[in-house]
Design brief:
Blueprint: H1 10-36, H2 40-66, H3 90-113, H4 118-144, H5 153-168
Helix pairs in contact: 1-2, 1-3, 2-4, 3-4
Length: 178
């Protein structure tokens, strides 16, 4: 069936609204952070993130308007306090963008999974590709700056093994009555 004959489903409308509202929230934070970031390599990734979302936002608006569906207000420049003092380091900002990229990847995949229309599926594929590109950029820069925080899995495994070794040496043969 042709896309022009398929109406957006309620799931598709919900994902478009969610992508728009979440995207505009992250975009406003990104716009604040780019105004305080001093490191040019981090600033460049934020510029890319802002441009990427602007492109995605225009596509979301087009999907909704083509269906005569209202566009959410979302977050706007009026929500941005341009005169606010610096609260975050450049590295914190980079970590924030990395984590928001992970959330975006999950959101795009979920949105794709509930989309029926081919044009919307291709849109979410494109968003996912943008997210993967941003993921590589953020993690590469975190690694380059030697500030990537690895998971605690190996530390916890070593601690667990030490704990289990101590327990295995304990004598549990005596019964304690309460």
């Amino acid at each position: 069936m042709e896309n022009d004959k398929l109406k957006l489903t309620s799931s598709e409308i919900g994902t478009l609204w969610g992508e728009y509202v979440n995207g505009t929230a992250v975009d406003i934070v990104n716009r604040f952070m780019i105004s305080i970031i001093e490191d040019e390599s981090i600033k460049a990734i934020f510029e890319d993130a802002i441009k990427t979302f602007e492109k995605q936002k225009q596509q979301i608006v087009a999907f909704l308007e083509n269906e005569n569906f209202p566009v959410p207000i979302g977050f706007t420049e009026s929500d941005l306090n341009k005169g606010a003092k610096r609260l975050f380091t450049d590295i914190f900002c980079l970590n924030y963008l990395h984590i928001m990229t992970l959330h975006g990847l999950l959101g795009h995949s979920t949105s794709l999974a509930v989309s029926v229309r081919e044009d919307l599926r291709f849109f979410y594929d494109s968003c996912d590709n943008d997210g993967k590109r941003m993921y590589h950029q953020t993690i590469d820069l975190l690694l380059e700056k030697e500030v990537f925080k690895e998971t605690l899995y190996f530390i916890l495994l070593k601690t667990l093994n030490t704990f289990l070794a101590k327990i295995s040496q304990m004598d549990f043969s005596e019964r304690v009555e309460c």
